[in-house]
């Protein structure tokens, strides 16, 4: 994108779209955000907001590097969203406890510990009794755990709404109920055709998550290969003192909130665009939670949330300029890491669009890896 666009349409009002919109608006761009749903009501509303890049780390992948880099931005990211919006965003960096219930789980934790040591990341490998001391609610047969203090969690819905409000306060407009059908270019302008009419800008950011590949791009035969992966998340009313921090087992994770509730996530299901909560999904998560923390059997059941997370074949996001449609920027395919990668994605997109600054990290995320997009 050779010239600096002044009017930018962001397609998608999830965590990534709202983070991008806020970053663009605070740097002086005129921004419109459009989505068929209200702000944060796609995959974001079913996110537990876990910020844990090292929890599943098994090797030095590009995704790990991006996630670590983005986590380092989070303190300022949340503070800026709160200050600019006037909305308090619950955010805790109380660490995570990754628990092994079987010996093969301990082998994985040892491998992760070695990786973190190479990166100079503080982590403590615990035996069963030490893990029980860190988290008294753990099942008695827990054989070990890995404590990573730098991890945390954020209220994804509140953060997304704060970003949208902050963007609005800096002049952005948010159009809800507008399903985007087609994006094209006419005489140097970008035209976004929606169910509520047309929006025009100098550039477009496609941040529509799992629906990114459903939008027609004028003159472009290929569609960005993002597929929906269903994730079900449970909301429980905890009874008594809760778990101390985000606790990660082999089949689920638990996120405690100060209001006495707990989130249990999350299934990984290839179910297309089916957004139903299912009996099987709820049962599996309840059984997994109770296996990890038996006291969960006493919790009240408040409900289940479902989100379609946008996945790619290589599990990396698609972030970067289109080679096929002028002034189109992709910011999609973040799969289970949309919340964690939001601040870095916003920074990379704004740098590229407004300052023509192409971060080296974009090479691994380029849409060109999937063809002429």
Beta percentage is: 25-35%
What's the number of helices? Answer: 9
Q: Trace the largest sheet across and list its strands.
A: 6-7-5-16-17-18-15-19
SSE class = alpha/beta
Annotation, overall tally of beta strands: 21
Residues in helix, %: 25-40%
Task: Tell me, rounded to a whole number, the average pLDDT.
Answer: 94
Shape: globular
Spans where pLDDT lies below 50 across 5 or more residues: none
Compute the separation of the termini in Å. 15 Å
What string gives the helices and strands in order? EHEEHHEEHEHEEHEEEEEEEEEEHEEEHH
Rg, Cα atoms, Å: 21 Å
Main sheet? 8 strands, mixed
Structural key phrases:
373 residues, 6-stranded mixed beta sheet, 29% helix
Could you describe the 3D structure shown?
Helix 1 (15-26) runs parallel beside helix 8. 29% of the residues lie in helices and 28% in strands. It is built from 9 helices and 21 strands. Strand 1, helix 1 (15-26) and strand 2 (30-35) form a beta-alpha-beta unit. An 8-stranded mixed beta sheet has the order 6-7-5-16-17-18-15-19. It has a 6-stranded mixed beta sheet with strand order 9-2-1-13-21-20. It has helices at 15-26, 62-71, 74-85, 103-118, 128-134, 156-169, 279-292, 338-355, 362-365, and strands spanning 7-11, 30-35, 50-51, 91-92, 96-100, 124-127, 144-148, 152-154, 173-176, 180-186, 189-194, 197-201, 203-206, 216-217, 227-237, 246-248, 253-256, 261-265, 300-311, 318-321, 328-332. The mean pLDDT is 94. It is globular. It is of the alpha/beta class and 373 residues long.
């Amino acid at each position: 994108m050779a010239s600096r666009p002044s009017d930018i349409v962001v397609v998608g009002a999830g965590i990534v779209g709202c983070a991008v919109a806020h970053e663009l608006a605070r740097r002086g761009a005129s921004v419109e955000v459009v989505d068929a749903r209200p702000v944060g009501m796609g995959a974001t509303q079913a996110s537990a907001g876990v910020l844990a890049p090292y929890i599943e780390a098994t090797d030095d992948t590009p995704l790990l590097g991006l996630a670590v880099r983005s986590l380092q931005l989070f303190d300022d990211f949340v503070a800026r969203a709160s200050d600019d919006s006037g909305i308090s965003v619950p955010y805790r960096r109380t660490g995570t406890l990754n628990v092994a219930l079987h010996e093969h789980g301990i082998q994985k934790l040892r491998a992760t510990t070695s990786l973190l040591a190479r990166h100079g990341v503080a982590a403590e490998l615990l035996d069963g009794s030490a893990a029980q001391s860190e988290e008294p609610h753990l099942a008695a047969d827990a054989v070990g755990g890995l404590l990573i203090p730098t991890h945390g969690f954020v209220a994804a819905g509140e953060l997304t709404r704060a970003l949208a409000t902050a963007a609005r306060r800096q002049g952005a407009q948010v159009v809800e109920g507008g399903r985007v059908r087609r994006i094209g270019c006419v005489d140097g302008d970008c035209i976004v055709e929606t169910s509520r009419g047309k929006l025009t800008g100098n550039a477009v950011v496609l941040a529509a998550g799992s629906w990114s590949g459903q939008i027609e791009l004028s003159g472009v035969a290929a569609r960005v290969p993002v597929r929906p992966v269903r994730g079900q998340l449970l909301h429980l009313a905890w009874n008594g003192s809760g778990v101390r921090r985000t606790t990660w087992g082999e089949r689920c994770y638990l996120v405690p909130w100060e209001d006495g509730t707990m989130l249990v996530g999350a299934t990984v299901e290839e179910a297309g665009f089916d957004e139903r909560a299912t009996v099987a999904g709820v049962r599996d998560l309840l059984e997994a939670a109770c296996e990890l923390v038996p006291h969960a059997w006493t919790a009240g059941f408040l409900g289940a949330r479902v989100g379609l997370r946008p996945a790619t074949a290589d599990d990396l996001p698609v972030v970067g300029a289109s080679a096929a449609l002028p002034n189109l920027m992709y910011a999609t395919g973040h799969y289970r890491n949309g919340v964690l990668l939001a601040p870095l994605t916003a920074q990379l997109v704004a740098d590229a669009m407004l300052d023509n600054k192409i971060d080296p990290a974009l090479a691994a995320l380029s849409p060109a890896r999937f063809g002429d997009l």
